[in-house]
Amino acid sequence: MNIILLSGGSGKRLWPLSNDIRSKQFIKIFKTADGYESMVQRVYRQIKEVDPAATVTIATSKTQVSSIHNQLGDSVGVCVEPCRRDTFPAIALASAYLHDVKGVAPQEPVVVCPVDPYVNNDYFEALHTLSQLAQQGAANLTLMGIEPTYPSEKYGYIIPETSDAVSKVKTFKEKPDAKTAAEYIAQGALWNGGVFAYRLGYVLDRAHELIEFDGYQDLYDKYATLRKISFDYAVVEKEPNIQVMRFAGQWKDMGTWNTLTEAMEEPGIGKAILNDSCRNVHVLNELDVPVLCMGLQDVVVSASPEGILVSDKEQSSYIKPFVDAIDQQIMFAEKSWGSFRVLDIEDESLTIKVTLNPGHSMNYHSHQRRDEVWTVISGRGRAVVDGVERPVQAGDIVRMPAGCRHTILADSELKLIEVQLGREISVQDKEKFPLEIVSHGKEKA
Amino acid sequence: MNIILLSGGSGKRLWPLSNDIRSKQFIKIFKTADGYESMVQRVYRQIKEVDPAATVTIATSKTQVSSIHNQLGDSVGVCVEPCRRDTFPAIALASAYLHDVKGVAPQEPVVVCPVDPYVNNDYFEALHTLSQLAQQGAANLTLMGIEPTYPSEKYGYIIPETSDAVSKVKTFKEKPDAKTAAEYIAQGALWNGGVFAYRLGYVLDRAHELIEFDGYQDLYDKYATLRKISFDYAVVEKEPNIQVMRFAGQWKDMGTWNTLTEAMEEPGIGKAILNDSCRNVHVLNELDVPVLCMGLQDVVVSASPEGILVSDKEQSSYIKPFVDAIDQQIMFAEKSWGSFRVLDIEDESLTIKVTLNPGHSMNYHSHQRRDEVWTVISGRGRAVVDGVERPVQAGDIVRMPAGCRHTILADSELKLIEVQLGREISVQDKEKFPLEIVSHGKEKA
């Protein structure tokens, strides 16, 4: 099975665990035997359990690449959108990537699926069936229709011609009000979960009709010039030959704190204490200090280095404008090489904790307007400053005056405290260079 | 006016802003023209406004001395109890301190008052009257009786002989149930707010009757051997000649989050965002990141480096057992020389931010089982390592291997990041020495 997972944009609705650079699909919230996994880890694991040979490609933006590799490892396929251009350009680019980079033949089937459904393995078995239906070619597009459990206003509806397991699609309906949704359901309508399958060549043909391009690299290069247009508008609405396959298993959308906490197996993740009079309270605490809840009802509490949310669960769906108004430095980020967390902010200094994964290094870079000091607190590695490489371990200090080029390479997991000093500390003040080692220091750094 | 302020013990009921080493009276919660002041700062300011010549002595434990000097300056009188021995030994020690250290004559009046009443200046004017009544000597003890506003179960009651402004006391009653309290109030009873005045010699005589000691220093030295006994039991219950003065002004006890938030002039202190559907919600946030509250009612949210409380206001009075069960390192402390805050805890390292007040220094000390590194992030001062003093400023690094003696003296406000490294990091691993400077380093540290 070739599967393209669409990994969407920034998820402020789950602030403070999601923000501009950390999307909800990366929050580690689902209990496993030995800890917690994120939505993207859960979905990837489920796909591999159902089809160990599946080729998974994640279509996403540059900002998510670090988190994806950090959580899924380096072997997962990632098709990076240079900028956001809605779903049709994204699916066209991912399809061109499968064809030109991964060598998938035009007659092979491809399944497209959002990265964040909260489902069981039967869902991925259904995707496998969807892929087979696409390969058989009875229709140009094969959609998954989810059997509704209530007249939701949050989803589009697919109305099939028959109530068979697989049926031609009669028509599509936009998100309705609850009363209209109930009427649709009475007619046998299904939720449109944004899942569909096709033969690769079909979407490549549509892409070439709408965009003049010569293969994946050319499409990538001109991506910023493409018109924003949805796959529904560009392809689905113009295609008369569409079929839909019913799916009646569990399917939940984890878009708000309310729906997300419903999927939690226990009331607290992280250090959380709830007294006996708490009812329907969930705590997600990423901080090192405890959250104590007393006498609350229907409340979600979430604490991260970015901030603290305390909200009635229903009200939490109105969070976005409040979070948009918060103007604050990013306090935590996962990177391809590890992560960093801001520990302290002063007018002329910034102190962060940096964790490097074994075998990884940050970019070789310099800053014009700040000095930096590293104090290694655990692990072993090699620091490079202006071309001189020196071994470092816990207790070693590395001074980096403004202008010097520097990086650190982790031989084991390596943690350090970085103190940045200067009057104009900014993430923009960074120039990257190819790593060049001119000598090896014998002494400790 | 000679006034002894009793500054009580650790206040876990206001966790996470109070804890074992930080009592509620030091929380900066009351709005002033240019910021916030704590209960102890508010009371001290009010006393000085009413009687600029007042001699204020704070009777407290060792653990609070740093916070008192940090918040009130070095000129306030502090009588330190070497250990906790209940109110009679504490008041006896403070009385001996006034006589032997401050030179207060036996016939002079003294007023004893808790450090944490939330009152207006009329309360301190009443204390002044109480002091004058004690000096006139119509009774051996002159108490303040607070006119009850409701039949509270939280206070003891004083039943006066008459309803005059000043009356002989008929009897005292322990904390009653609400029904009994209402009966007391019908008889003209007053709340016992723990405020009383006497001629200094009177309490010194009682102290010498019950304890064999020869002046303040001797009493201090044998303090640990004294029996725990309350002033009420040792003195008040045995004294037939007691009068009470009525006080009808505002008087609030700030012992719980519920009463404390009633005294807040605005819903939030620190970074707090409340949406329109919040009702009777108060946020006290000491962290650098925002707290967002949505759709809550009758809730207090408090966040500090120690943890986060989210509680129904009524329920918050049951907090103590939950906080007792939290076993956690102290994350923030005020010291006489400034403050520190824990930024990061790892298995074999601890990173803290240290702020030194101008002109202050930490003790000259060493650690056996950990190395330390300072990175100065702002200010100017002098670091002393093994007797060698060197000037330091932002960007300078000081390395302190295990065993070396070290301190830093702040010439301006000075902030630094301290990284502690070792397998057994413990607050117990500290040996203090008198400062000895053997040479002055010319280079930067």
From TrEMBL, chains A, B:
Molecular function as annotated in GO: mannose-1-phosphate guanylyltransferase (GTP) activity
Gene3D superfamilies with a match to the protein in the record: Jelly Rolls, Spore Coat Polysaccharide Biosynthesis Protein SpsA, Chain A
GO terms in the biological process aspect are: GDP-mannose biosynthetic process
The segment(s) forming the Nucleotidyl transferase domain are: 4-265
Start and end of every Cupin type-2 domain? 354-418
Q: Which domain of life is it from?
A: Bacteria
What PANTHER family does the database record attribute to this sequence? MANNOSE-1-PHOSPHATE GUANYLYLTRANSFERASE (PTHR46390:SF1)
Q: What is this protein called?
A: Cupin domain-containing protein
Give the species. Answer: Candidatus Gemmiger excrementipullorum
